[in-house]
Amino acid sequence: MAIALETNAADRPNLALAIEHVSHGYTIGDRPLPVLDDVSISVKPGEFVALLGPSGCGKSTLLRLAAGLDLPLAGRLTEDGRTIEKPHPDRILVFQEATLFPWMTVRKNVAAGLDARGLLKSEGYRVDEILRRVGLEAFAHVYPHQLSGGMAQRVAIARALVNEPKLLLLDEPFGKLDSLTRLSMQQELVQLWRDVRFTAVLVTHDVEEALLLADRVIVFSNRPARILSEVAVPRPHPRRRDDGDLIRLRQVLLQELGVTADV
């Protein structure tokens, strides 16, 4: 039986995301809290884009809008020209916290989306394939409390990918991992993206992570978030941290963020 994760990435459908003049905010008590200010971004099918900016500037809010969990106060978001109005399996958001079901095994956590959509019987073979792909086949029958932070996050990513999303939205998925696990997970994510070629949007405040992973980095201001600049990263994968071009781009991005020291 052919398995989707093993197909040629060029043959696999993905989607284009368009964010058009989006503004958004919340009301705290009786006071408005503006979060996004006239943001426009176009993400091509199969592209990996990183959203970089200070913590709390509105990047995560933008991912929630792209996932269809909220609707913008102004502007619109579209997938392949269709307005995003609600969540859909084609668009999956992976949070900073793994948010696994503690009463389910790893395998059942990964299978939860297929099960909810009535597809587990016909497409359950994909669960074992993705567990193998992320190196968790030996842990299929253990529970979340028995996993390390990195392993739990691998389960969360596997749970997303088993549904074959066309757009993967990543909200600082490695932010709470130790440095070595974080480096390993970054490499695994890039390899999965290269193999499957979903469209990806990553929220991060880590300049190096953005440069190592993304085709393009979009820099946001403090809240309410506005786009300060867009920087292309024309380097092949896998990338090296000591790549001279990446070091140069790092300085450019730090300056955009208002950090002038060489840190």
Concise account of the structure shown:
It contains eight helices and ten strands. By secondary structure, it is an alpha/beta fold.
Oligomerization state of this entry? single chain
Number of domains: 2
Helix content: 25-40%
| Main sheet record | 6 strands, mixed
Strand content: 15-25%
Uncertain runs are 1-10
Order of helices and strands: EEEHEEEHHHHEHEHEEH
Based on helices, strands and strand pairing, what is the structural class?
alpha/beta
The gyration radius over C-alpha positions equals 18 Å
Number of strands: 10
CATH superfamily of the largest domain: P-loop containing nucleotide triphosphate hydrolases
Give the N-to-C terminal Cα separation: 51 Å
Mean of residue pLDDT? Answer: 87
Question: At the first level of CATH, what is the class of the largest domain?
Answer: Alpha Beta
CATH architecture of the largest domain: 3-Layer(aba) Sandwich
Total helices: the number is 8
The order of strands across the largest sheet is 6-7-8-3-9-10
The backbone outline, from C-alpha atoms, is globular
How are the SSEs placed, and which strands pair?
Elements (H helix, E strand, L loop, with lengths): L16 E12 L2 E13 L4 E5 L6 H9 L6 E6 L2 E2 L7 E4 L11 H11 L3 H4 L1 H9 L15 H13 L5 E5 L7 H18 L2 E6 L2 H7 L2 E5 L6 E6 L11 H13 L7
Parallel strand pairs: 3-8, 3-9, 6-7, 7-8
Antiparallel strand pairs: 1-2, 1-4, 4-5, 9-10
